[in-house]
Design a protein that fits this description.
single chain, about 290 residues, alpha/beta, Immunoglobulin-like, Rossmann fold, eight-stranded mixed β-sheet, 6 helices, about 30% strand, globular
């Protein structure tokens, strides 16, 4: 498991009964987590003294209750700064477990000792984009949601990366990649965080289980002749890291060589000392120079 254990502004304090107790900067949140199937005693007083809690509804969905949070606030990870706010569906705009990938991205770019051009697909609020840009890469950030791209720009500004070479693209990722293939644009590193399920701007239906492999094959056509790495993230329940790894190996390793590693991402839990699993990631790295 790749564990994101270098945070100062974020912490999983405890887990119990389908929920996690978290610290986001100076604010305490309680949010549901499907991996927390144990029901251990809640001895920490913050379980009853939080700033906000997201409660699931028996009819589906849920809502923030006892919300004593500001409209937004900031947390930092190294030089990166993120604007955080409570959203629908329990989210805050940051997935802290991705910090393990941000560290990997920055190390790979800095040690490449050459200009690196990165494509970040389904790029959300820009964690990987900021990590790559801060390490000196040029980045193309693509997401179909205009609001998410605007949020990512705010995070870039807060991270003093407004002048970094980042292209901000609001578009369907598959359509954008198809156009990049026709234009002859190529990228040395590709990052993608595709959803489990979604609808495109024209009503196209995306299902990860059936659409991921052909999409990754499509994306492989924009990889440069000097590739550095490809990262695929997945939060789809039941999709093992080894499946992501096999997709990477079958498409990239067979053509370019190199090697793939696939693991769960995790966050350390202060109370238990255990690591909370938070999704799967596969990393293909080309060792050829």
């Amino acid at each position: 498991m790749w564990i994101s254990d270098q945070w100062q502004d974020y912490e999983v304090i405890d887990t119990s009964g389908g929920e996690k107790l978290e610290r986001w900067g100076k604010y305490i949140l309680v949010r549901p987590d499907p991996q927390v199937i144990w029901d251990t005693p809640r001895t920490n007083k913050l379980w009853h003294n939080y700033h906000a809690r997201y409660a699931r509804s028996s009819s589906g969905g849920g809502r923030w209750s006892t919300n004593h949070l500001p409209e937004r606030w900031q947390i930092h990870y190294g030089s990166l700064c993120f604007n955080v706010k409570p959203m629908n569906f329990k989210h805050t705009g940051v997935f802290p477990e991705q910090a393990a990938n941000w560290d990997f991205i920055q190390d790979a770019i800095r040690t490449a000792n050459r200009p690196v051009n990165v494509l970040n697909l389904f790029a959300y609020t820009g964690g990987a984009t900021l990590a790559a840009a801060a390490a000196g890469a040029s980045v193309c950030h693509v997401d179909a949601a205009k609001g998410m791209v605007a949020w990512a720009k705010e995070n870039a500004a807060s991270s003093h990366l407004s002048d970094a070479p980042i292209r901000w693209i609001v578009d369907d990722c598959a359509k954008f990649v198809e156009r990049e293939i026709r234009r002859g644009h190529r990228y040395d590193a590709i990052i993608m965080d595709p959803p489990s399920y979604g609808r495109g701007p024209s009503g196209e239906i995306w299902k990860l289980e059936s659409d991921l492999y052909p999409f990754v094959k499509l994306v492989s056509q924009v990889l440069s002749d000097q590739p550095l790495f490809v990262i695929i993230n997945s939060y789809t329940t039941g999709l093992a890291p080894s499946v992501v790894g096999y997709i990477l190996d079958s498409i990239f390793t067979t053509k370019w060589g190199g090697a793939t590693q696939a693991q769960e991402l995790g966050l350390p839990v202060t109370a238990s000392g255990l690591a909370l699993p938070c999704g799967a990631t596969g990393r293909w790295v080309c060792h050829k120079e």
